[in-house]
Amino acid sequence: NNRKLLNGFFESLEISDKEEVLRTIDKKAKIGEENTKELLVEICGEEKADKLMELINNKRENKELLTYLESLNLNDNYKIGLDELKEVYDYMIKFGIDDDSIIIDLSITRGLDYYTSTVYETFLDGYESIGSVCSGGRYENLAGNFSKQNLPGVGLSIGLTRLFYQFQQLGLVEKYKTKFTDCLVIPMDENLNFYAIDIANKLKEQGLKVDIYLEDGKFKKKINYADKIGVKKVLIIGQEEYENKMVSVKNMEDGKQVSVKVEEIREYL
Fold first, then answer.
1. By CB count within 10 A, which of 67, 111, 210, 235 is most buried?
2. Looking at the DSSP assignment, which residues form a beta bridge with residue 135?
3. Going by C-beta distance under 8 Å and a sequence separation of 6 or more, which residues neighbour residue 105?
4. Main-chain phi, psi angles of 105, to 5 degrees
5. Which of 242, 244, 250, 243 is nearest to 268 (CA)?
6. Cross-strand partners of 138
7. DSSP state string for 189-211
C-alpha cells in the first residue's frame, strides 16, 4: 500500500485525524471488519466511515485495482501516492515476481506515524498463520530525529526466528548455504534499470547467481560495493552498451575490462 495515497484519500473526505484513522485501519485484521467500522464511525462519522471501508475492502486484481484508483482522480497527494504505488508494482513485475504473489492491499497501513510512502507486509504461502515474516516501509524524516542530516530510506523488520524455522522445515537452509554471487550488474543511469534487470533475469535463468546495483551514486561507490561482496565479474551497462546490445565486463581480480555481446555473456562468464 502507499501512505500518501491514503492521506490524499483522507483529505478528499476532509478527515482531520489521519493518524488515528490509519491506526484504526491497521487493527482490522485483528479486531475484524465490524469493530473497525464502529471505531471509524466514532472518529469521522457514518458516511465517511462507509467510504473508508469501501476503499480498504477493495479486492480487485492488481491491475484492475490500479485502474480503479486512477479513475478516482483526487488531489495531488493522492496522485503522487498512486504513481509511487504503480512504480513499485512495475518494478516487482519487472524483477520477475509472479503477479499472483503480489497483493495491493489498501488495508495495510502500518500504524506507525513515521511511514511516509510505500508500506508492505510479507507472508509465506501456506504458512500465513505464523504471521508476517518481513514488514516495513518508506520513511523520509525518521533519521532527522537523531541526526542533523536528512537521511530518507526504506526500513523493514524481519521475523528471523519464524522465518529461519520455516526455511529449515522446507529444506532451504541446506539447499542454499554454499551459494555465492557470480556477478554484479551495474546500470550507469536509472533509465537503464529495466534493461539491466532483463539481463540479470536472463542470467539467473541460465543458472548464475546475480546481484544488481540500483542505487544512485558515483561509479567508484558501485565498484567498491562489488569489491565488498567479493564478486569476480561486474557487468557495466551505459548508454553505449544499451544501444549496441553489449555489456562491459570488468574483471575485479586484474582490473581488465572487455565488451561482450548480450547473447554471449553467459558463455564468457
1. 235
2. 121, 157
3. 1
4. -115, 110
5. 250
6. 154
7. SGGGHHHHHHHHHHHHHTT--EE
pLDDT tens digits for range 121-132: 999 888 888 888
* Burial of 269 (C-beta count, 10 Å sphere; 0-12/13-18/19+): middle
One-letter amino acid of 23: R
Looking at this protein, which amino acid is placed at residue 232? K
- Count the residues in the chain: 269
Residues 6 or more apart in contact with residue 258 via CB below 8 angstroms: 248, 249
Q: Which DSSP symbol is given to 192?
A: G
Please write the tens of the pLDDT for every residue from 149-202. 777 888 889 988 888 888 888 887 777 665 578 899 999 999 999 999 999 999
C-alpha pair distances (Å), 175 with each of 162, 170, 178, 204, 224: 18, 10, 8, 17, 29
Q: Is 93 exposed, middle or buried (0-12, 13-18, 19+ CB in 10 A)?
A: middle
- Residues in CB range of 18: below 8 A, 6 or more apart: 6, 7, 10
Q: Where are the alpha helices (DSSP H) in 109-191?
A: 160-170, 172-176
Q: Specify whether the CB–CB gap between 121 and 131 falls below 8 A.
A: no
- Dig out the grid coordinates for 115 from the structure: 511511514
Specify the pTM. Answer: 0.73
Residue 201: predicted pLDDT: 94
pLDDT at 150: 76
Percent helix / strand / coil, the chain, rounded to 5: 50, 15, 30
- Locate 267 and state its grid cell: 558463455
